Amino acid sequence: MAALISCEDLWKIYRLGDVEVQALRGVDLLIKEGEFVAIMGASGSGKSTLMNILGCLDRPTKGCYRLQGVDVGGLRADQLAEIRNRRIGFVFQNFNLIPRTSALENVQLPLFYRGLPLRQQRALAAEALARVGLQGRENHYPSQLSGGQQQRVAIARALVASPSLLLADEPTGNLDTQSSLEIMAILDRLNKEQRITIVLVTHETDIAAYAEREVVMKDGRILTDRKTPSGASALPVEA
Amino acid sequence: MPTFLLLTALTAVRILSRNRLRTGLTMLGIVIGVGAVIAMVSIGEGAKAAVAERVASMGTNVILILPGAVTTGGVRGGQGGVVTLTTTDAVELKKRVPLLRETGWARRDVMQIVHGNKNWNGTVNGISPGYLTIRGWSFTGGGPFTQQDLDTAARVAVLGQTAVDNLFEPGEEPVGAIIRINHVPFRVIGTLAPKGQSAQGMDQDDVIFIPFSTAERKVFGTYFLGSVGALFASTERPEDLAPAVGQIREVLRQRHRLQPDQDDDFFIRTQVDIGKVHEDTSETLTVMLFSIASVSLLVGGIGIMNILLVSVTERTKEIGVRMAVGATRRHILIQFLVEAMTLSVFGGCLGILVGILGARATTVVAGWPTIISPETVVAAFVFSVAIGLFFGLYPANKAAWMNPIDALRYE
Question: How many CB pairs under 8 A join A and B?
């Protein structure tokens, strides 16, 4: 399978006053299309920084990041925005839904920025909500939904633009066990059935176990990169 | 893009209507500003129109020639100190300045006028035949003097409305009645349509006209025959006024035997000059009122900017999310600009309404004439859009240039 993500010697150096923080210190990473990768590591290990760079929200200080063969480092801000819009879906720990805006409209957002006609935006968004089991909740506001439901809206928003890459930054971090299982089941299904590449950041081993590959980071470097004991994702979990 | 703009506008309206009090207070600045501009400009325009009307009541394309200062042996007399203009000057001018359509002259004095048991102290004008035509007087009853009246110095009078009101009972017919001016009996042969105040604010209708020859010989008396208080002339077209003034000056200087180093012993003013003085005054007034109103618009604009800056900060996380799902800087910029413009356009429309009501109220309460021209309304609207754009630009730019990661992490 073709490489979706290819990172070579990625460095990210922040300057906080006189202190230089090396968040990434030479990361090489290759992720193929259709993979389900979990990135683990203690806080400060650089996994969030790596995630931001993979999501085209940030640029590496040094090194090369190719997404589907395109060197992202050389793109302008609006080109990055378009890549985020069309190729990448984000799921955040704290859902990051726009408050006082209905579930449907939240899901419409990527299509809205793509400039689709309103009718089409609505149809696709409703379909995406249905795929995460939220049909009938289109007009609910985030405040009227439970954490798990909010995260499902967020997943629908990430999916609606049919991205090739789904980035989930501790998607279960704010959820109870039951909701966590539901969310992971959805992600697993997306990966298995629709071959969407998923990169998941977590520090919970049982969540990481859903992935087929586990990358552990420490001090801005990749410590280990191995296949997970397969079958974890086959755990009998009902969504 | 049209879909995007439409939806952005709808979103803006929804976001703004969420916080009604804040939105209302923010708009209030623009409402007051635009309202003030509209009211002030309409008062200014009303004043200007009133002045123009008064100037027009002088007649059409009128030139006024007044006696001026005479310098004798280095002693300068004041204006009107010496009689320098005569009926012959007027006749000569008519002959030698072809641009003039008509010339006339007048002498006036304030005299006691008696009719029956009523009396009135009014301005009596001895006038030449052309005078009434030049000044554009029209009759409501009777008619003007005839050449024969002038030749025979007939004792006939034409009355202005104020004189009629003060000398006659309501409903009494003035034409044909006998009045006495300075003990001399006159027959009223005509009454004039009212003109209202002059550009100088004087009651133009407080007037009695009698033939010049009659005034000179039977009422006023004279130093020497033919001396007049003022000469009047008119031209066919307004653009003839300036060249005519030059030619009149030439002729009069020649007739008065003035040396090149001597000052004119007369003043020439045209209707345009007189109108200009008053237009300048009302122009100054308008500019002053407009500046005051503009300051309140500026303050309104700053209010919009202030609230938008607060809003941008409050919604930092939202901006981050929007960027993460693919909003470009331009999308964010437009979103906040549209919000600013929604505020200013709604405020502007309300302001236009308030301004129109304010102008109406001014007319009703203070009795000042006001004119609301469509241009003013359109300009005020465009101005409020521009204010939204201008004062929205800084906050919108601030939002658009946020770093997506920092915005997403903002708590």
Answer: 68
